[in-house]
Amino acid sequence: MTLISSLFLGASMASASPKDSGTVTVWIQGDAKSWPAALDRANKMFNSKYPNVKVDIQYQTWGDSLKKLDAALVAGNTPDVFEFGNTQVLKYSAAGALKDLSSSKSQFAYSTNWLKGLEEAGSYNGKLFAVPYYAGSRAVMYRTDLFTSLKIKVPRTYEQFTAAADKLMAANSSNSKFSAVYMPGKYWYAAIGFVYDSKGAIAVEEAGKWKGSLDSAASVEGLTRWKNIVDKYSKADKSGDEGGQWEVFAGGNVAMSYSNGWETCCIAPQKGAFFPMPSIRAGEYMPAFLGGSNLGVPAKAKNPEWGIYWIKSFTSGQAMREIVKVGNLPNNTSMLTLVKGGNAQVAKGATSTWFVPAAQKWVNVENANVLQTMLSDIATGKKTVAQAAKDASAEITKLLN
């Protein structure tokens, strides 16, 4: 047993009785204040089984919640439920800081068809450590007025997508600032979708070791297609990222952008709608990076059984419907059809997703900005696609091992 795993090892759990009294402590992000009906349904369901247990919801902020959790883990005074952003879970799963929920998986609603990206985020070494909560995804946001004026139909194939971009660029050739597809050089959530669409990957595990695989033939093909989009259709900063891209869209010089579902809120005076990014394979969508949250039970939780049942209650069908009503994507594929409005097309795209490698040291790759550097080198022409991918793969291999 390692020092870190012994630090987080919790005491064995005694079975809880419906007659027991006490408090179940839940640390979730303040975003949940926007769906109070879901919390109300969850708490009522929880108290129908444990009527003498108080539910103590403590709202957290993304900026400091992990620091608070780290301190609580060391002190042995953790909440019974904790919300993670889906890219945050792996570090804690691998360290033994979370309770193994594998034996309870069947108790959770829709656990047989959770969104792949969220389930992968909450899993480590074939075990479940954090339950999918809700999701956000990306799709192509487009100017409805420009499509109508040029009689462009919503693209259903990759060829139709590039044909639409060609037509938009030709019609706006006098505008040196115009982007048919706004694609910043460091936008890795978009670019890596091209890699996975080509059946490539960021890294693969071989004989217990991780190996960067962005230099594989499939990955290079995807990166090359992405570079073609940047070169032909985008006037975005080749050394910049996607932060604030909705403001550029609102400026009137963008026809399409690869955007989060919520970005339509911020693009006035332009009018935008969505369609899923088409795959190079007919009838499929390009895999989208699935953002979102997972709910875990710390290994040192005082009331882990209560924590598990509260998560079950909060991810039940009734509560999930309330979460979807306010514009979120559900944690499962069965309920994607309930998503209405502009997000309905984003939900369609969420049936095909990708996620970062399930490597314990993945955070080192993100902290080193390996993907952003590679993409900027490709976009600016500093390196060829092949050379940039080779260098990035070597760095990823080093960092993951």
Helices, strands, pairings?
Layout: H1 3-8, E1 22-29, H2 36-49, E2 53-60, H3 65-75, E3 81-85, H4 89-94, H5 116-121, E4 123-124, E5 127-128, E6 130-136, E7 138-143, H6 144-149, H7 158-171, E8 179-182, H8 188-197, E9 203-206, E10 209-212, H9 217-233, H10 245-250, E11 254-260, E12 272-275, E13 288-289, E14 291-296, H11 304-314, H12 317-325, H13 343-349, E15 353-354, H14 362-367, H15 370-380, H16 385-400
Helix pairs in contact: 2-11, 2-12, 8-9, 15-16
Characterise the protein shown here:
- The radius of gyration is 22 Å and the shape is globular.
- A hairpin with a 2-residue loop joins strand 4 and strand 5 (127-128).
- By secondary structure, the protein is of the alpha/beta class.
- It has 2 domains: 3-136 and 291-354, 3-Layer(aba) Sandwich (D-Maltodextrin-Binding Protein, domain 2); 138-289 and 361-400, Periplasmic binding protein-like II (D-Maltodextrin-Binding Protein, domain 2, 3-Layer(aba) Sandwich), CATH 3.40.190.10.
- The chain contains 16 helices and 15 strands.
- A 5-stranded mixed β-sheet has the order 2-1-3-14-6. Strands 8-11-7-12 form a 4-stranded mixed β-sheet. Strands 4-5 form a two-stranded antiparallel sheet.
